[in-house]
Amino acid sequence: MLPLPLSLDICFTTQTILQQRSQSQCYYPSKNEKFRVSSHSMWSDSLWIFDNLTPGTKKKYCRIVWDVPMTDGTNLCDPEYAVLLEELRILVWSCFIDPRNSAALAPASLTPFGRGINMLAVWMVENNYMHLDELDQRASERYREAVQKRIANRLEIHDFPECDVDDMWCEQSGGVSSAWVMHLLMPWSKIWSQRSALKDAGLGAIKTGKPFGGTSINKISEDLATALHTAIPPLPDEVAIEILNVAQNYMDSSVYDLTEISEYVAALRYCKIAKTTPDKFVQDFDFNSRYRSLKKWHANPLRSSGRLVGVRRLIDDFIGAASATIQGESGMRVSELLSLKAGLRPKGLPECITVRPSRSGMLNLYYITGMTSKMRANPEETEWLIGATPRDSKILPVAVQAIVAVQELLDPWRKLADENTSDLLFIDWKCPGFPNSEDEIVPMTAQALSRRQQTFFFRMVNWENFGDDPAFRVYKATKGKCIVTHQWRKTYARFLFQVNPKMIPAIARQFKHLSLAMTEKAYVGTDISLLKDIANENLNMTADLLLKQLRGHGPKHIGRLAKIMDSYKPDMEKIIEDANGQSAYEATRSWCANRNLKIFFHGYGSCLPGLAPTEAECHKKGQTVHWANKTPNYGHRRPGTCTGCYLFIAGPDTIDYWMKRYSDNITAWQKAKIAGVESQFTVAKNRAEQSLSYLRGWGVDVPLISLEDEVFN
């Protein structure tokens, strides 16, 4: 007997159930027992939802789907698969309640483990395996081949469910994530490690040795990911340009009408205006009646049935068009886009947009502020350049127009949302029409936004306009529903690079990449001609920097690298001799190529580790010093480390970074001084002084920054 009764009337969390079942050693349900696996799910349910109570994690449920469709139209929940379904349930549950040879799985691991269980179930049915004890060494090898083939096929047809993208896509390698592959192989590892537990549960004994010939699934996953190093592709230029043109036309034509409808329906819903009903208002609404100069974008009237649902679809299309435009113009990840905050500044621009003059003063530069978390321990606030206009222009960049439109379109509903949703730029509604309550207004998810974009592409783009080029085939066949949000990021990078290969450092800064190599490898792609352009352009920049520094030409650079360059002057003078112009440049270029010298850009400066590999401070901190290390140690590369390195140099192109570093740190130190705790902020003061030294070295007129009566400059 259990210490406490488990019944449908008492809800226990997954953790409580596991604890009590373990104490009683009643691990699995007896015949006809109403067995609960969480506060949400019964053993016999087609969906298990586990409670995730891990501190510090988002309050979301972890789940595994048992309602798995088979390739022949049947389903895992059909009676003919009842035995196999029960064995798979016992396998999964045993990993939580009775782990053998490994730690118990955590509820948060249920979803990724479930992907592997689902694929195993489909594969077993396809290959006529109806029991787990029928699986042997040969079966494990066949399954490994099936996993490789499945992923290769998905890459070929661009089939990337948005819920899988974050796990499947490896930002650093530019291809398939080994961790994602490992989830598909994990059931085999558990079948082997849990063999005694399965036997104790009444299942047949596993008759094979360790699967995959004893090779660990970690090793197999890494090998498969390497073999499948095909990245999510950028959109063909023709496809991207057509989509963005259609999106802009749709937004220009519909924004006034949809915003008016959104405001009025919200007022009718919540203020209970008695003059009319939302449905009647939409029925009588004359699209474009106040904007005759615009092309008629929607035919009146909407269908008599489901008018509000029809308008909701138009708004969803607008969100798809706007989000695609912002991503296409900035290269932002979907998670970064969804981090944007709502709100308006006094001059009418959204809170997430700031405008600063360019260095020449001829342009207005528009920056968007959001959060980035990829490859960072914690989310960091950062900003992206999203557009530029002539200084006196009244026209906003297209992406800024899209953000303004989303701000105004959804603003009436943000005011009615709860505090977790009301400050977000992108929100969603959990209903087919317009929301009736606060609970139906929720944050937009990556999956939902991807569907908005795909539906817009499907409904609004004329795919018949594209020719028979094989590059367009998959887009025409699916009418854009194969496109995922991450492709905009790659499309943006590819386009900029094709315009000018010198944009690689700028792309890396825009993408907040920890290394230039990541931009080159993952985003520009593996096109041989582009890779050659990258290598040549980097060699050109390296030779140009060295030659200008050695001869004292060009803009002033600051950093200890100048001392290293001085030591090479005798050698370089022998090579260059009395050569001038192009001949001197070619000689320097050849000298750099022979030594495989490569400049690395860091946003706040550059370095040339190849000049003196053993002097790199980042390698000293990481204890990775070696004469052959001609690239930085990115794990230990920080501004404080780099500025003390003999291989670091910074030019006027980094002034914006050092100005912000100066401002942030001197402000922090002054606040500490006013509070009487300045001794705790000496690091901030030193950083401010260093930044100020750099700025003055470039002749920058640094403005006075003061708090109360404190002045520092």
From TrEMBL:
Key words, A-Z: DNA recombination
Protein's name in the database: Phage integrase family protein
Native source species: Massilia consociata
Organism ancestry: Bacteria, Pseudomonadati, Pseudomonadota, Betaproteobacteria, Burkholderiales
